[in-house]
Amino acid sequence: MIKLTLLSVLLLLVTPVMAEEHVHHHGESAMSLSLNQGEKWPVDDGLHTGMSGIKILMSAAIGEIHHNTFTAEKYLNLAGELQGQLEFIFKNCKLPPAADAQLHILLADMLQGVEQMKGREEQRQGAIKIMKALHAYPEYFADGKWQ
């Protein structure tokens, strides 16, 4: 847990200041994703594999989350599995620096969602944050294998 917290802080510190800022609302990132001069950012196999794993995990849980029947214990278990996928991405993804900086914005939102899911309050909002990041991923990253 300390390792993930330190990683979260590190991600927030290394994300470039050049990224476009917007009005900060409660629970939203102060940084926003942007395209690469109108083009999507490249991906590698490590990123595709990790993001696909996150999508599979969330797809399996979305029905119960939507109907508010997902238990606190299930949120904790799902958060642990999602954390494992994020750690896989951090370990295996090797993008060019500008693409990596954009990815860190997306992953910071996912890390916040995972942390919310580990708590006893706002677990559902954490899952929603992860779903929003999953929705944004193909809009900003050129993952030709994404389905």
Give a verbal description of the structure.
The protein is mainly α. It has one domain (about 40-145). About 65% of the residues lie in helices and about 0% in strands. It contains 5 helices and no strands. Helix 2 packs across helix 5 (about 125-140). It starts with a helix and ends in a 7-residue tail after the last helix.
Question: Summarize this, please?
Answer:
By secondary structure, the chain is an all-alpha fold. The chain is built from five helices and no strands.
Which helices and strands appear, and what pairs or packs with what?
Layout lengths: L1 H13 L30 H22 L5 H21 L4 H22 L4 H18 L7
Helix pairs in contact: 1-4, 2-3, 2-5, 3-4, 4-5
Largest sheet: none
By helix and strand content, what is the structural category? mainly alpha
- The averaged pLDDT comes out at 84
> What percentage of residues falls in helices of 4 or more residues?
55-70%
Q: Give helix and strand order, one letter per element, not per position.
A: HHHHH
What is the C-alpha radius of gyration, as a whole number of Å? Answer: 15 Å
How many separate structural domains? Answer: 1
The termini sit apart by: 31 Å
Shape: elongated
Q: How many DSSP helices?
A: 5
Low-confidence stretches: 1-29
What's the count of strands?
A: 0
Strand percent estimate = under 5%
